[in-house]
Every structure is written in structure tokens, then in C-alpha cells.
Amino acid sequence: MLETATVLDSIAEQVLETMFFSVVLGPAEEPVDVPRLTALVSFSGSHAGLLGVSGDAATANALAANFLGVAGDEVPPGQEPAVLGELANVLCGAVLGHAEPEGRFTIYPPQISDTEECVAILHKTQIQRNFETTEGCLTIGLTILEDGPLA
Hints:
With 151 residues, this protein is an alpha+beta fold. The protein has helices at 2-20, 57-68, 79-99, 116-123, and strands at residues 24-27, 36-45, 48-56, 105-107, 111-113, 127-133, 136-145. The protein is globular and about 40 Å long.
């Protein structure tokens, strides 16, 4: 599982830099008692599992602004959840493609929420990383099961 964690770190850094114009500054402590927006993407196929991304409102807004190429106050309403879902989707596809290039996967649409239940699901993942970026703290979690759907 250590190799998968290293791959997740590398892919997260690449995706954030190339698609979101964000720099990973290093590991971070997860903010406590801060409302967070969470995007969860499940997948099935050669392996099944879940990848999640979580960030506070300011981080989500800054990433959305970078992704859309606009100023933070110009992000259209509702775009922060969509962009966070896109980040989770891209990360999931990149990690799966790296882990099993010949694998066949179905990646399901992101489920996005600001509830504590989604944050709790993210905290139950096998691998969890907290990244300090130029936009704020992001938490990324990944669970890969050998076979069968995620329970």
C-alpha cells in the first residue's frame, strides 16, 4: 500500500499543478472544525473502491478560479462543487490508469456534499493525505479493494 500512497502523492501534485495551477507546498494538518466540501468518486471493474477530495470553501473557490481562469470573485455560483468533483474524477482516473494500465474500470459521477457524513467517509479510506497548497489545505483519500464492489 506504501507504493500506492507514493503514486497518489505524485499524481495529486501533477494534476494540481497542470490543471489547477496550484503548487503543493508539502504535507498539512487537516483543519479541525472547518466546514468542508467533499467530492467522492467510486469505481468498479478490475478493482473497486473510492477516491475522495475535501477542502474548505476558500480552497474550493480558489481552485475553481484557477481551473476556470477567472478571479475568485468571478467564479459562477455552484462551480466550486463541480470543480472539486472534476478534481476527484481526474485524480481517480489517473491513479487507476497508473495502478493498472490494462484495467477496465467504471468511474461513477462524483457525489458532492458539505455534510459531516462525507468527511467521515473520507476519513475511513485506506490512504489519506493532507496537502498544503498555495490555495489552502486539501485532503485526498483512496481505498482500493482487490475485488468486488465497495461496501
